[in-house]
Amino acid sequence: GESVGLHLPTLSVQEGDNSIINCAYSNSASDYFIWYKQESGKGPQFIIDIRSNMDKRQGQRVTVLLNKTVKHLSLQIAATQPGDSAVYFCAEVSNFGNEKLTFGTGTRLTIIP
Amino acid sequence: DAMVIQNPRYQVTQFGKPVTLSCSQTLNHNVMYWYQQKSSQAPKLLFHYYDKDFNNEADTPDNFQSRRPNTSFCFLDIRSPGLGDAAMYLCATSEGSSSAYTDTQYFGPGTRLTVL
């Protein structure tokens, strides 16, 4: 079946360094991708999204890269802060056939002071 | 601030005792979703409403029901909770302006359900 997966379940980064969280997806029909941040005991919080007609999108300290050739998505967080510690989920939406927000398994990011 | 609100934040129920979780939104969004999230797992969609139209996921157990009496409120009813239903239940909304699924979904803080 279709799936969205993450390469690494956990990631530890020194405060102030940049972090990169990767995500692989298998549904080539997916045309909309979202990164969510989920802190402990809270609901997922929208970070940034990207549509399939783009390969890069930047926000405040975050950048999402989309490589449709290899079906790979990444989230870059610049100058990490303690508040960035959370679980990060990528999610994909297909506008063809099964139109559903499908979440990946999540990566736990820990910022080391 | 416009937001998605879930009450209660923590709910304890007994095995087999019906429980209702509530969600309200001030975003005036057309679509409201209910997800189940178990520990260290991704959220799993149970069902959603596009306005008054109910859409159930194929693998959602019959034990889970939902009501949406108006645009602002949506309820999740668990008719006979089992131990395996202990989880975080997340409500989300999306504008639903074009496609119900390509709009960004905004999540509430969740209700953590404990089943004794």
In short:
The complex is a heterodimer of chains A (113) and B (116). With 113 residues, chain A is mainly β.
Q: Can you put this structure into words, describing what you see?
A:
The complex is a heterodimer of chains A (113) and B (116). Helix content of chain A is 0%, strand content 56%. Chain A contains no helices and eleven strands. In chain A, the strands form two sheets. In chain A, strands 2, 4, 5, 9, 10 and 11 form a six-stranded mixed beta sheet that branches. In chain A, 35% of the residues are buried. By secondary structure, chain B is mainly beta. Chain B contains no helices and eleven strands. In chain B, the strands form two sheets. In chain B, strands 2, 4, 5, 6, 9, 10 and 11 form a seven-stranded mixed beta sheet that branches. In chain B, strands 1-3-8-7 form a four-stranded antiparallel beta sheet, with no helix packed on it. Chain B is globular. The termini of chain B are far apart. Chain A binds chain B through residues 31-32, 34, 36, 41-46, 49, 89, 93-95, 99-101, 103-106, and chain B through 4, 6, 40-43, 45, 90, 92, 99-102, 104-110, 112.
